[in-house]
């Protein structure tokens, strides 16, 4: 070959390279643009208009679902709009795991929420950048984050209430807006990520009816309770996306509601972003068990698009191409939604050279960075709510030489994770947190109880031994760098129990998350003879493109083999089971072999059984008798309360609850401990309010820890030892009984939440104790009389009158004129401040006209004349130390919706 020919071939190859890399997946390269949409110097709106205009009808329909495919001829990469970041980037490998949303709300710390939102989006962007480098454009790896959940937690029976910021519109609005701003960033040109407040609107159960339920809220409740947080995140937080709900409002599905999507969202609030449906919500328009609003998929898709639902989580919008051809809708109507969706992708910088997008350079090392880990610990510490501390039994420092740790949540991974969770790396469980913090004490552990009778629970570490005759709790674990148990194990260690979440993650650095296997060997003994149903929870996957199998050998005989193929439905992630029979309580040889192979998702195994209540209780009492103090980890589980679940046991129904008391098996555990006379400390791990009336009357101390995140075990232990002074406050009312509540299906706010409840709660909204004490003084109002439309400033001093440093949550409540409609008072300000012993801090609140307004029966918000008062303290008015002031408003000023 001649030199000239070689040069020509190299030049041709170079030209081909430029053509192929002009717009690589995810981020555009710096090659010279050929078309206006590729020219990053042009306004984004013009570029989007140009790009949408080049698509065919069928390509347009394909882009209107969450799994938008690539269009190679236009250089458009595939993109999936579905990513989760409720309290950490979820389902995409290891990430920083914060407390569940209800726990974050308990911090009453607005700046902290902003930092958490920022952390979630930094890790999402870092994961996205890494995914693009590997040509991954999948669900959970995008930058459109379907959070926060700002529905009002109106009833403690709702299983998804754990995902919210509680029952108060103002607290939810402030925390949600801070989270949105943190997620999206402050760059004027590009979003770091896009927030998606959900579920718009008037949505909070029941889970079993959500696909067909119709809510007809009064105009007062709609504008006073259900919409303020959405307004704040959209108008003040400038969230660029929003998710419409499954339920109907006033007879129309929320995703086809002209009231919600056109009049309010785009009319009143001037929303410029895009709307996504909840998953399958468009199908609910026409399914037999849904709203029966549309006759088929084509008509449902037309209804959704016309009302302003821009993208469909699901596949129904693919019918829009045929709908256009059948004359049901014009192609130009599709273009409206397409322009919104592509403008979002352009504003994320996905069509620009990485050098122009500062977030495109965020390295993968930002994921779980030391700073993020420290923030997670801070959040878990701040989320702790001390409900009772009789005779200062806490802190425990120096008071206990032997600590009995019991209860179903003491050694359970899901109890620190919650739902819609990030995957924690090397998670620390509560019992291990106690042992680490109280190093000079002897810590004894027994599970003691299932969550509820006949409810599966993790087989506890106390029932395993690494080998016959061994005293080491747990199982020998051999990890292989392939899915066939071949060769020498890459890792050998002792696993205390089989309770693992490796969703899109590797169990160890030497293993590929896409293909590995694990063999656990040792012995298993039962707490009593009998039949035991063993269930295996596999990792959540949606969609599922993995193949998993596990085999159990018992007494050296193969008992069962379970295998799922690569194209399984995500519901198959549930619980394969087998029965074991024990003639005695002696150790029996036991082996579990788990194999995982995947293109991207899944991985994880939790081994559970349904154990008899009395033998578990007997085991607990054996360790209690040898202890100086007992710490009982009781409460709920995200396997029992959550989103549309297949759970039907007493007290629970489909993810919701039918009773708010502690389940009977756990209650019996507490009562049995009390009978011994040992000090009893109750730690609650749960996502919703519990009527723990007996514990309030009989336990020595109660700590509410929620589902506390990756640092939860450390935060709990430090709170019990006194290293962390608790200052969290309840974001929901703890009622004494379900009998105190209206019907679960009643969406009227009458006699609900602290603002309207007429009875005496077990613990009120905003309640929480401290190891310190605080006093308020010198409350001053900027005026005693103001004209409607003016602002009011409130100044005061708060002092730490205790002997230890601590945080105080100053809560400001507005008491309006009482007319039989308005709340007795409403939270209108809060600040979390840290004070040393004897330190006094000046605090100030500024109430704007919207905070000084109220809604009438017609839903009209206005500042109205009358006499008002202010209450400022560490809890609701009339509870504890506080200060008050009064003022009058003259005139009236209507405020825009």
TrEMBL record:
User: Which superkingdom is the protein from?
Assistant: Bacteria
Q: Cross-referenced PANTHER family, in alphabetical order?
A: BETA-D-XYLOSIDASE 5-RELATED, SUGAR HYDROLASE-RELATED
Native organism = Edaphobacter modestus
Record's protein name: Beta-glucosidase
- One example of a Gene Ontology biological process annotation: xylan catabolic process
One Pfam family here? Fn3-like
Q: Which family does it belong to?
A: Belongs to the glycosyl hydrolase 3 family.
Q: Where is this region: Disordered?
A: 871-897
